Amino acid sequence: MSDDDTPVPEAVPAGGLPHGLVQRDEGVCLDLSLAPAQLRAAVDQLFQSGQLLAGLDYALFLLTLFHAPAPRAAPNSDALLRIAVRVAPFPPQRRALYKQVKIRGDSAEFYFEALSADADGQVPARREFDELVADLWCKGVRYGIDGAAVRAILGSGKAERITVARALPPQPGRDAQLVEVSQGIRRDDAPRERSDGRLDLLSFKNRFPQVKKHARLLRLLPGAPGLPGYDLDGTLLPPPAPLELDPAAVAGAGMAVERYSDGDYVVATQDGYVNVDAHGKLSIDNKIVSREGVSSRTTGNLKLCAAYEEYGDVQEQRQLDGSDITIHGDVYGHLHSHGGRISLRRNLVGGTAFNAHGDVCVEGVASGSVLQALSGEVHVKRAESCVIAGTRVVIEHASNCEIIADEVVIELAEGCAVAARTIRIGSAGPRKQVEMLLFPLVPDLSALDQQIAESLARAAHYQQLQHKRQQEIDAIAQLPEVRNYLTLAGQLRRGELQLQPAQQLQYDKLAARIAPVLKEVARLRVEVKQSEILHAQMLAMVAQVRQQRQATAGQSRCSLGLVDGDTAVRAMVVPPGPAKVYDRPPKEIKALLRSATPGTQSVFADSIGSLDWTYAPPP
User: Fold this and answer.
1) Is-contact 270 251, C-beta < 8 A?
2) How confident is the model at residue 196, as a pLDDT?
């Protein structure tokens, strides 16, 4: 049929051919203006009527009947497709040659046995491929005949059982997926280059890359449908639906899904580091989260400017430099934090935890390690053979440790050397051959004592000056003229005396002569008052410094709830100056605490009892 549904002049249907099959001079054609289902019905009608398609192009036949997407009528052109040479009869005696077909699930087998002679001694002609196609179609095998294999066995004449047809399984499509579109989330494990141009083989170049706000990170690649399959009977087998993916389920904090003209993207909504949680969800934060551990294989040495959280272990000799560090695994390497908090959820073994401006907390065991918090506290559940320093140290159980701080609180201490201004220990005693040493740090009061002495000396000087000037005033007051003038002046002021003009003249002359002396007396009285004030100020300063001295001395305390074995407590004088007593290298701390006995003063030495001691300086 043409595009305007008018009959094609050359396409004259042969008598009895089903609608959809057309016999032309060049062969049998399929009318492509019909749907594949209509063409399959026409072929079925032909085969069921005892006819076959001779000279069949089976590949084109199969493609047209099952894989053509829709009717294909070409405008102003022929819509016929030649698939065979002619239509031929398929008599029953020939059909009997194809009884050895066995259908097993999604395949069909046929035993090609040798053809035997009939009663007249005539050997039938060999089996034909076109006949096998028609016979299998009538037996329900309408799809998937292996034309090459069948023609090969027919040409060879061998007796053999082969699979003549197979079903076509559906081909799955492509699931939706997120495709990386930014190099900003790619790690670079190349060796880091130092400032002098050399390579640091212990550190990676960019283990934790940082992304910028508004950067496109991932693109959603939509799923693509698969290809359908066909069962042996021609039933369509639809492919499995591709899995869909919701980008919002992957994008966590610091990310958003935005739609652009070329698709959906996962976009960064802030500057930061890309983290992946245990469920594969992404997020961007100023905090770095790692789950692989710190080792020469995974991260190398790290120097970071952000908070860091590690779920793995920190390998021996690895260095982690950052701030606000949290480790969920064991630490065997060295941690250096410039601020925030070092939090170790498990153990610190043979490593270092140093925090310049924050706390150090070990929830497990610290063994053979160094823990220092120069401007913070150190909290340890159990410490063994460690050097510990900080403003305040709190330990549940300490054994064979050197500890120095402003304040130390320990529930159970064995064989430790402890130095602090305030020491509070629940139970203290030796451990094997290691003695228990406690050094309450007492202040050096010499500067305050000198200040008190100087203030007392100046107060005495002002008191002497006051007495001297008062004596000078008394001496001047005993002069005859001065005494007479002062007496007359007092009587006149009180109204006890009235002067005559002649007497007033004499009084004025006396006042003129005595005026310089009175000015001197006034000056001396001012100096007396000043000396009195300065003397009182010096005494007040002495009282204030004495209170400060007492308060400073009272900060040094040592409290032992229970002494269980030989324990020595010796006061150690802290040298004056702004330096912190615990801001020392570990070797110096060990040397100070284990060899400080000659430079100290004994406070307590016993194997039983308790102690509650507060430093009382000499008066």
Assistant:
1) no
2) 60
Whether 209 and 244 map to the same domain: the answer is yes
Facing residues of 612 across strands? 559
Residues 181 and 280 in one domain: yes
Measured distance CA(122)–CA(177) in Å, rounded? 67
Q: What is the pLDDT of residues 360-419, one digit of tens each?
A: 999 999 999 999 999 999 999 999 999 999 999 999 999 999 999 999 999 999 999 999
**CB contact at 8 A, 584 and 592:** yes
Distance CA 183, CA 479 (A): 106
Q: Which long-range contacts (CB under 8 A, 24 or more apart) does 528-534 make?
A: 528/466, 528/469, 528/470, 528/473, 531/462, 531/463, 531/465, 531/466, 531/469, 532/462, 532/466, 534/458, 534/459, 534/462
Residue 492 in domain: no
Q: Calculate the alpha carbon distances from 570 to 134, 322, 441, 604 in Å.
A: 112, 39, 9, 7
Q: Distance between CA 17 and CA 9 in Å, rounded?
A: 17
In this structure, the number of other CB atoms found within 10 A of the CB of residue 196 comes to 5
What is the C-alpha radius of gyration for the chain, rounded to an integer number of angstroms?
55
- Residue 437 forms beta bridges with which residues? 417, 568
Q: Where are the alpha helices (DSSP H) in 339-401?
A: none
Residue-range definition of the domain harbouring residue 241: 177-285
Domain count, the chain: 3
| Pair 257, 281 in one domain | yes
Long-range contacts of 463-471 (CB under 8 A, 24+ apart): 463/531, 463/535, 465/527, 465/531, 466/528, 466/531, 466/532, 466/535, 469/524, 469/525, 469/527, 469/528, 469/531, 470/524, 470/528
- Low-confidence spans in the chain with pLDDT less than 70: 1-15, 69-78, 116-125, 183-209, 295-300, 305, 445-446, 551-554, 576-579, 596-599, 618-619
DSSP state, residue 283: E
Same-domain status, 77 and 54: yes
Residue 371's pLDDT is: 96
Alpha carbons 572 and 404: distance in angstroms, whole number = 12
Give the bridge partners for 31, in sequence order.
80
Q: What is the pLDDT of residue 363?
A: 95
Candidates 473, 467, 466; CA nearest to 520 is 473
The conformation of residue 431, written as its DSSP 8-state character, comes to B
User: Alpha-carbon torsion 510, 515, 521, 526, what sign?
Assistant: positive
pLDDT at 578: 59
The Cα 56–Cα 33 span in angstroms is: 20
Largest CA distance in the chain: 199
pTM of the model: 0.58
- Rounded Cα gap, residues 143 and 62, in angstroms: 7
- For residue 295, the model assigns a pLDDT of 66
C-alpha to C-alpha distances, 282 to 250, 371, 389, nearest whole angstrom: 6, 34, 39
Residue range 236-249, pLDDT digits in tens: 999 999 988 888 88
